[in-house]
Q: What sequence folds into this?
C-alpha cells in the first residue's frame, strides 16, 4: 500500500525546519544529524559527551555543520535553556546509555540516563510552544522476552531482565505517563520508535560486534567472538533512521495527532536473522586478512539472559507509515564493510562526510523506490 505521504520525506519537508537532537554525538545521532542537515534542517545537538574515540561525529566534523552543545539531559535548567534558545519544531530524543554490558556495571547510571533522563526531556519540552512533533527512541529490548518464535507487536507486554532493557521499558512507562498527564489534545504529537541490532559505518562503541571486529582487524589481530551461535535480526542504521524521519514528518502533519502516543517497530525481514559468527564472516570479506576466534564462554556471565532471539513484527510501520526494510542482509554488511574500508584509507572529514552522504542518498533512492512500488 504505497501512500503518497510515504514519499514526501525529503528536502522539501525538512528545509529550514528547526530540529533538536539529543544524543547527536553518538552513532545513530550523528548519522541522523548529518541526514537532517543535508536535507536543509537547522540542527541543534545536545549531548553530554562524545561517547567514543574515534566517532562519526568527529570523523565527519559534524560540529562544524550544526549547533553543537555539550550538556546532560538530567540537567533540567540547562536543557530548558538550550531548548528555549533553539526553539525547535521537532525533537528526536536519542540520548541514552545504550550498552547492555555496561548496564550491568553501571545500573544506576543506566536507569538515571535512560528512564529519568527521558522524564527530564519530556519535562523540559512541556512549556515549549515551538514544538510540533517529537520522536522518542527506545529499543526492541523493551519487550518482555517470552521466547516466542514470532515477532513482537507494539501492544505486547514491556519488560526487561538486564538493567539496559529494564531502563528502556521504564522510559516507555515514563513516556506514557507524561503523555497522558501533561500532553493533551493541543500538545505536540509524540511517538515512540523501537529498533535494535543496528549496524553500519561509524559505530565505534565498545562491546558491539562490528566495532570490536574493526578494532581487532585494524591491529592485525583476530577478532574475539564470545557467542558465535547467537542469532540476531541485523539491520543497517539507515533503516530505523529513515523510519524516524517518516514518523516525525507524519507527526508534524495535519493528522499527526492520530499517531500521538503510538509506538512503532522498525526491524528487518526474517532473512536478516543471522548468527554473530555469520555476521563476522560476512564482514571479514571486506577486510583483507580478517579472521576471528571463538572465545570461551565466561563462567557466571551476567549476560546469559541475552542469548534469546527477539524479533520484531513491523506490520504497523509498513501499513501506517509505508516504511519497509530496504537493504538485504548481504547489502547491510556490504555497506558497513565499505564504510570502514573507506575510513581506513580516508581520514579527511569532507571525505568521510561525502562517503556517508552517498550512502544516505543511495539508501533514500532505494527506500523511496520501494515505497512507490
Ligand atoms: N545502536 C544500537 O544498536 C541501538 C539499538 C537499539 C536502540 N538504540 C538506541 O538508540 C539511541 C542511540 O544509540 P547509539 O547507539 O547511537 O548510542 P551512542 O552511545 O553511540 O550515543 C549515545 C548518545 O547519547 C548521549 N548521552 C548519553 N547520556 C546522556 C546524558 N545523560 N545527557 C545527554 N546526552 C547523553 C551521548 O553523549 C551520545 O551522544 C539510544 O537511545 C539507544 O538506546 C541503539
A:
Amino acid at each position: 500500500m504505497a501512500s503518497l505521504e510515504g514519499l514526501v520525506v525529503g528536502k522539501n519537508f525538512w528545509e529550514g525546519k528547526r530540529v533538536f537532537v539529543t544524543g547527536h554525538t553518538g552513532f545513530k545521532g550523528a548519522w541522523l544529524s548529518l541526514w537532517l542537515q543535508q536535507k536543509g534542517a537547522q540542527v541543534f545537538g545536545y549531548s553530554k559527551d562524545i561517547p567514543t574515540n574515534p566517532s562519526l561525529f568527529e570523523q565527519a566534523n559534524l560540529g562544524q555543520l550544526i549547533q553543537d552543545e555539550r550538556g546532560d539531559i538530567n540537567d533540567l535548567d540547562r536543557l530548558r535553556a538550550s531548548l528555549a534558545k533553539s526553539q525547535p519544531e521537532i525533537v528526536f530524543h536519542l540520548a541514552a546509555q545504550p550498552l547492555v554490558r555496561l548496564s550491568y556495571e553501571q545500573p544506576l547510571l543506566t536507569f538515571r540516563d535512560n528512564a529519568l533522563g527521558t522524564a527530564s526531556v519530556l519535562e523540559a519540552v512541556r512549556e515549549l510552544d515551538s514544538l510540533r512533533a517529537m520522536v522518542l527512541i527506545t529499543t526492541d529490548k523493551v519487550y518482555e522476552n517470552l521466547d516466542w518464535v514470532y515477532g513482537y507487536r507494539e501492544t505486547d507486554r514491556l519488560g526487561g531482565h538486564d538493567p539496559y532493557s529494564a531502563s528502556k521499558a521504564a522510559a516507555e512507562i515514563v513516556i506514557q505517563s507524561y503523555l497522558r498527564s501533561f500532553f493533551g489534545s493541543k500538545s505536540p504529537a509524540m511517538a515512540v520508535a523501537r529498533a535494535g541490532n543496528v549496524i553500519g559505518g561509524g559505530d565505534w562503541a565498545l562491546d558491539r560486534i562490528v566495532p570490536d571486529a574493526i578494532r581487532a582487524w585494524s591491529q592485525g589481530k583476530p577478532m574475539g567472538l564470545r557467542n558465535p551461535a547467537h542469532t540476531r535480526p541485523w539491520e543497517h542504521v539507515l533503516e530505523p533512521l529513515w523510519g524516524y524521519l517518516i514518523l516525525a514528518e507524519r507527526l508534524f502533519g495535519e493528522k499527526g495527532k492520530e499517531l500521538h502516543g503510538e509506538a512503532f517497530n522498525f526491524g528487518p525481514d526474517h532473512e536478516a536473522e543471522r548468527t554473530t559468527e555469520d555476521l563476522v564472516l560476512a564482514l571479514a570479506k571486506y577486510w583483507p586478512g580478517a579472521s576471528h576466534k571463538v572465545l570461551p564462554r565466561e563462567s557466571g556471565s551476567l549476560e546469559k539472559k541475552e542469548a534469546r532471539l527477539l524479533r520484531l513484527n513491523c506490520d504497523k510501520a509498513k501499513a501506517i507509515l509505508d516504511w519497509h526494510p530496504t537493504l538485504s542482509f548481504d547489502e547491510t554488511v556490504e555497506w558497513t564493510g565499505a564504510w570502514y574500508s573507506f575510513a581506513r584509507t580516508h581520514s579527511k572529514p569532507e571525505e568521510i562526510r561525502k562517503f556517508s552522504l552517498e550512502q544516505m542518498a543511495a539508501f533514500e533512492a532505494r527506500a523511496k523506490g520501494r515505497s512507490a512500488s
